[in-house]
Amino acid sequence: MKQVLQHRIDSTFAHYDVNRNGVIELADVYALADRLLRAFGEPASSERGRELVEAYDRFWEMLVEHCDADRDGRIGPAEYRDAMIEAVVDNGPFGTDFLEIVQSLLDIADTNGDGRVDATEFQVLLKARGLSEAECGLAFAHLDTDGDGAISVQEYVAAVRDYYTNPAEDTPGSWLYPKALECTGLSH
Ligand SMILES: [Ca+2]
Ligand SMILES: [Ca+2]
Ligand SMILES: [Ca+2]
């Protein structure tokens, strides 16, 4: 069971290490932000664009605080894995900083501004992450646990926790990342 979860942690590491140089740095986090900006068709200079970049700045600060033990601005796979196991698997609740980041992300995803992130809006988020169209539909169906046709902060955070703590197939969390990514994680 632990092995599946370690593999998932390694999979997200591979996802975050956009430039594939073996460490997560600010450049990778900005590359992820850029990918999303392009998916939403937003320039970085628009209000929404600035909010997104700020959310990713806060995400980077959170990563540094939790993972970058030697504070050199580079997070290696071992630092990342140890921190994730401690933060998510062993300790449970995410801090409010993480909730705020997710809230910003969902605000940005809510492109029609009706206060809800529906299937079409959520799909943009997941497509930018590399999920196929079919996977996006399945992910939405699994993450919308109260069935109201929208993804709430609570539903998203529950899925993230689920991803790192529940190795079972077909849980909401198992749909957060492309299925293919789970096969290409770093080897131990
Ligand atoms: Ca990198
Ligand atoms: Ca909406
Ligand atoms: Ca819902």
UniProtKB/TrEMBL annotation:
Q: What keywords are annotated for this sequence in UniProt? A: Calcium
Kindly give the Pfam families that the UniProt entry links to this protein. EF-hand_7
Q: Which SUPFAM superfamilies does this UniProt record tie to the protein?
A: EF-hand
Name-wise, this protein is Calcium-binding protein
Residue stretches making up the EF-hand domain: 4-39, 55-90, 131-166
Q: Which domain of life is it from?
A: Bacteria
